[in-house]
Design a protein that fits this description.
767 residues; mainly beta; four-stranded antiparallel beta sheet; globular; disordered N terminus
């Protein structure tokens, strides 16, 4: 028999060790890795495999008088499982759980705030942000959708089914904004991190949006986070931004965010350095940038939570500025020579109040004020006085809407959009050119001096009745009455009826249709006294849409729509130089086509879609009888997007996506000759001679973009970066033709090509 003898110190150590194993306390706190947010409902399992608890709202569990030494395991839905060693001496442990890299459904870009489905495009915010070529900006990515055409390669101003940018509605939080994109395409004026959803109606939009000939882009900003303070900083190729958000007082209560962004091209380049990098070597006396383009925007929102409702108080602003010295490019239009400067800005502030008063009765109310300002100076007259325009506007908008759920199958909405505007206008300028003017010559145009104030008011009540006739058939009928009056003599009273239908043919097939009448007030410069024609009528369009949505399987669906949009009373310039006879409603137009959208649902971070648009858009001048292709006419456009994570254990937080865009070219007007203004004076300027308006078309356009993104998680912060590689095939797409500063290259114009290969980058840090 063997006896083990222990000294007093060894016996004490054994007793202490056994006592610790069976009588220890341990508190475990579980947080999400990358954000530090407490994880409620996580299961913490001790080493014996039989003792476990679930975390509370603070992410904590406490084990009392329990054997704890060894490996503990933490499990939670939506997170990777984790094992961690715990020693007998530990009393507290903090565990950071990495969220699963499998992507959830996400938010619909076309959210259920609006029930109508006809001509509505649906993608997740994540899909749009990850679209190559968008630089992480979902509002720039909308040009990858069917029925939407970018006004130019570098622009995010869009044509929608035969209508230009001025004929589309843009809302942010149910209020108009001055403009949606900085300098027409650099970035949207709304921080991408704040967007909750986007409703995009290509046509047939319901009465609550008001009137416009084209489509509607409706941006809703999300609620601020209210669990704790969050901060986000990002830097990209041309901008940096900062976002702070969180609860006003206690977590879970009222919340706010403040975001600010600024470009820094003007910090990186002096005007001389900018000119050296981008000037045209062929010009002897090239135009010179004197103020490098710069822009900013800010967004602020306070979210007040009410019982069965909320009020959002918001303010967002944007500003853009540039200046240049115009030289050689004005040889054929000499009054444009000299300083060119442009400054534009807007401020929108207001509130949205949504309240549910009873199970069947609710209301939404928007009260907003917005201010726009545009200052332009260009060239000079023969005495050296510069031409200029200083236009400002102040608008107050009120739009309440009541909604009654009359019974299970019937809903009634009543609303009114009322607005009042004052716009001081001070200008010394000719009429402005538009896409109807391929041969516009500024020097020969009559210049007008205007110093006045434009006042406008609109009163537009509307009603919409939605009825579900059966499990298959739903209809919506609406009518909008518009009473509009503008100082100087312009007035209009218009009735705009609209209707839509949805028929569930079978569980996989939905038939949709929409019809409506739409009107639009001419541009302010077209109706102002002493400059335009206050006697103009509203322009008109009729939207006719028929569509089908088919669910192929749980992952794939296809949506196809045919449309026809006739337009009448469009404004054309007559160039009599005798206001008010220099504008008339003698224009008409027509747009028709087919849009097909094949989409893969975003599952496991894999996404994709194929958008095919066939269209025809024309405009006619009824005075001359000439019909031309609309500038936004592209007979065939195809966009294919695919994205997914990289494969392999070490690549699980890497993603890639690719976008291919091909279209049949853009219409343009060819210069076919030139002559001198004074045939007897060999020093007089050269005047171009044009062929038929928009009769030619640039070659087929093709562009391939690639995006690579990576997310890195730290304990209570995370970093995302991306490379947006544009035109990875280095294709030289012809976007226009340069005939020379004096049209000396008529027989051999220089091909102006679009963006070559360019790597955009972005880094986002959240904590």
């Amino acid at each position: 028999m063997t006896v083990m003898r222990l000294g007093s110190s060894g016996l004490l150590a054994l007793i202490v060790s056994l006592g610790t194993a069976v009588a220890a306390d341990l508190t475990v706190t579980v947080k999400e890795k990358g954000t530090g947010v407490y994880v409620e409902g996580a299961t913490v399992v001790l080493a014996d495999g039989e003792t476990y608890q679930q975390t509370d709202a603070t992410g904590r569990v406490q084990f009392v008088d329990t054997a704890i030494e060894g490996e503990i395991k933490i499990l939670a839905a939506g997170y990777e499982s984790l094992q961690q060693s715990v020693t007998a001496s530990q009393t507290t442990v903090i565990v950071y759980l990495p969220p699963l890299t499998v992507e959830s459904e996400g938010l619909e870009v076309t959210a259920n705030r609006i029930e109508e489905n006809t001509s509505r495009v649906s993608l997740t915010e994540q899909e749009l942000s990850n679209t190559p070529g968008s630089q992480g900006d979902p509002l720039k990515a909308i040009t990858a959708l069917p029925g939407i055409i970018a006004a130019s390669e570098s622009s995010s101003s869009v044509y929608m089914r035969g209508s230009n940018d001025n004929e589309n509605i843009v809302w942010v939080n149910r209020a108009p904004v001055g403009y949606l994109y900085h300098f027409g395409g650099f970035h949207s004026t709304v921080n991408a991190a704040l967007i909750e959803d986007i409703n995009i109606f290509l046509a047939g939009f319901p009465v609550e949006y008001g009137n416009a000939l084209g489509g509607a882009i409706d941006v809703k900003l999300r609620n601020p986070k209210n669990d704790r303070m969050h901060y986000r900083f990002d830097i990209s190729t041309i901008t940096s931004s900062l976002l702070a958000e969180g609860p006003v007082a206690d977590a879970g209560g009222d919340s706010f965010y403040v975001a600010a962004r600024r470009s820094y091209i003007d910090w990186l380049f002096s005007p001389d350095e900018f000119n050296d990098a981008f000037e045209d070597d062929e010009d002897e006396n090239p135009d010179q940038v004197t103020l490098v383009p710069r822009f900013y925007d800010t967004q602020m929102l306070y979210h007040q939570q009410l019982d069965k409702g909320y009020i959002d108080y918001y303010m967002f602003t944007a500003g853009d500025e540039l200046a240049a010295d115009i030289r050689d490019s004005a040889l054929s239009d000499p009054q444009l020579a000299g300083r060119l400067s442009e400054k534009q800005a807007y401020l929108t502030t207001g509130l949205n109040w949504q309240q549910v008063w009873s199970p069947g009765f609710s209301h939404t109310m928007t009260l907003a004020y917005y201010h726009n300002e545009t200052e332009v100076s260009l060239g000079s007259d023969d005495s050296g006085e510069p031409f200029y325009a200083d236009v400002q506007s102040d608008t107050l908008l009120w739009q309440p809407e009541l909604s009654w759920q009359l019974d299970e199958h019937n809903r009634l909405n009543l609303g009114i959009a009322a607005s009042y505007s004052e716009a001081p206008i001070n200008l010394y300028l000719s009429r402005l050119p538009d896409e109807n003017d391929p041969d516009f010559d500024f020097t020969s145009q009559t210049k007008y001096r205007v110093n006045t104030e434009l006042r406008a008011r609109e009163y537009s009540p509307y009603v919409k009745y939605r009825r579900q006739w059966s499990d298959r058939l739903t209809t919506s009928l609406g009518v909008l009455y518009s009473d509009i009056e503008v100082s100087g003599g312009f007035s209009a009273q218009e009735l705009s009826p609209r209707a839509s239908l949805e028929y569930q043919l079978n569980p996989a097939t939905l038939i949709t249709a929409a019809w409506g009448r739409y009107v639009q007030v001419p541009q302010p410069t077209e109706i102002i006294e002493q400059y335009g024609n206050p006697g103009l009528l509203v322009t008109r369009a009729e939207h006719r849409v028929l569509g089908m949505e088919y669910r192929i399987n749980p992952l794939y669906s296809v949506k196809a729509e045919i449309y026809h949009k006739p337009m009448t009373d469009l404004v054309v310039a007559i160039d009599t130089n005798l206001p008010p006879d220099n504008f008339s409603n003698d224009g008409s137009g027509e747009a028709y086509g087919l849009d097909i959208f094949l989409k893969r649902e975003p599952v496991n971070r894999t996404m994709g879609w194929l958008a095919i648009s066939w269209s025809k858009a024309e405009r006619t001048n009824e005075i001359t009888g000439l019909t031309r292709d609309f500038s936004g006419d592209q007979p065939l456009t195809l966009t294919a997007v695919w994205g997914q994570p990289f494969r392999g254990e070490g690549w699980k937080r890497w993603d890639w996506s690719i976008k291919a865009l091909v279209h049949s070219g853009t219409p343009y007007t060819e210069v076919i000759g030139r002559h001198q203004e004074d045939p007897l004076d060999p020093t007089s300027r050269w005047i171009p001679e044009y062929g038929p308006h928009n009769a030619e078309r640039t070659p087929v356009y093709f562009k391939l973009d690639l995006r690579i993104a990576r997310e890195t998680l730290f304990n209570e912060s995370k970093m995302k970066w991306y490379l947006d590689l544009q035109n990875i095939t280095f294709r030289e797409n012809v976007v226009s033709y340069d005939y020379g500063n004096e049209y000396e290259k008529i027989d051999n114009p220089t091909e102006a090509t679009g963006m070559s290969f360019f790597p955009f980058f972005g880094v986002e840090i959240e904590f």
